[in-house]
Amino acid sequence: MIGAVEVGLIYGVMALGVYLTFRVLNFPDLTVDGSFTTGAATAAVGILNGWHPVLATLAGFVTGFIAGGITGLLHTKGRIDGLLAGILTMIALWSINLRIMDGANIPLLRQDTLFTPLRDAGLLGSWAGAGILAVIVALLGVLVVWFLTTDLGLSLRATGDNGQMITSFGVSTDYTKTLTLALSNGFVGMCGALVGQYQGFADISMGIGLILVGLASVIMGQAILGQRNLWLAVFAVIVGAVIYRIIIFAALQVGLDPNDMKLITALLVIVALLLPRFKSVRGAVGRTVRPKTSEPAPEPALAAKEA
Amino acid sequence: MLTVSHVTKTFFPGTVNERIALNDLSLELAEGDFVTVIGSNGAGKSTLLNAVAGRLAVDSGDVIIDGRRVNKLPEFKRARYVGRVFQDPLAGTAPTLTIEENLSLAWLRGKGRGLGRGLTRARRDQFVNKLQSLELGLEDRLTAKVGLLSGGQRQALSLLMAGFTNPRIMLLDEHTAALDPQRAELVTGLTERIVAEGGLTTLMVTHNMEQALRLGNRLIMMHEGRIVYEADAATKAKLGVRDLLQEFANIKGATLSDKAFLG
């Protein structure tokens, strides 16, 4: 359970990135599946070459940033549809990631990582360790909120909200879109770097399907906590990432196979997307479509169990 | 202040749908001129505004703002000189951002946007001051999301945002057409005031003849991509809706759009 919370907090970094594209920019960005592994691969190679873990993690941010920037340029300057631009970068990154790692897998056994001090102090797997992670991820959340309230951040938010309007006030939406995609994938790459260090290896397939994990975190978290203001919207995303891991943990506890998790993730996203509609149907018709649907969390686990 | 010189714009050239939207059109606005533009549907009024704003690239001719040829400047760069209010009341504001955030975005028209705080005490004070002039009570709702406002309120806000940084050119594209008569009247009154206070050089497209006569110091009538009638301040003061309709009939010889009559 504590492990699930720890992992959830680490994946909260990725969820922050997905929030930037999916909610702020209103852009479903599939680059994530590739840039996550790119960040992990970069950090792993860096650590093997004796870089300081902090530097290696930041390097993961940089390579993710570049990957997102490429998707942004394909979409804005190349006028390629957003989904396709993301897919193109994601697929291309597969080969690049193999090049970076010079293979499909890099073990980080007995290497000094960001988590070594925590592990040595016996804090990993304890609530104290989870607390430390929570503080660090919360600081990143504060950073995101701060950024989105700057002049530049406001213009990014307006780009996703009403591109025509912000263009008429002198902002190039090509620039703001590309920057948002780059920053988003920077967070995703950094998250990949952290996950690689946490689990002790980087692997070519570690990013597959990850966009759904990010979407599940964003959608579920904001469905539960709402997004009345920026603080709530951003921190809901981190909470969502933790909830997602707890659901996965629960699903494994009830005997589901790890191979079922992609299906469960997809079901989670579908349920979280459809729930608001069922609510409105229920409100309009005045009868219950499903009993007790106010809690989106347990639904899919139960459904999967029955199946 | 604004010179449109022999501008031509053809849509779908070389196809059966070819349509000449602007046909060797020339227009000159002196500083502080407020020109109302009328004409039937498809006369090229909106195309003219889009050509000035940079949303459309012209096929030939020049657009010159404040002595500077801006043909090559993309829309977002021309925005430094050009304020715009669109027909759609939802088009000029960002719905999920608050009133003060929207104002802050507009406040920085054409300026670089960095990592400074988007909302400072000083800016808020300015915004309260400006919002009070709208007399809609929006100054008490600075942190309300703009999506919660009514169409009329949003259009009034759009107008304020487009004008309060005193852009060189103000473009109003039928900005009262989508509002009910009462709201339209409110926004028309605000337009008069904001343009007058800022001394803005303004080009306003309208379907409403009374509005075209009431506002501004000059009036032009467009037909098939050309200016077919022009009234200066002295003439305009004496014109009535009937005179305009007569002009219309003279020039076109025949059909007027229903909208022109209804206006």
Automatic annotation (TrEMBL), chain B:
SMART domains: AAA
Organism superkingdom: Bacteria
Membrane topology: Peripheral membrane protein
PROSITE patterns tied to this protein: ABC_TRANSPORTER_2
Compartmental location: Cell membrane
Keywords linked to the UniProt accession: ATP-binding, Cell membrane, Membrane, Nucleotide-binding, Transport
UniProt domain ABC transporter: residue ranges: 2-249
Name by which UniProt lists this protein: ABC transporter ATP-binding protein
Highest classification ranks of the organism: Bacteria, Bacillati, Actinomycetota, Actinomycetes, Mycobacteriales
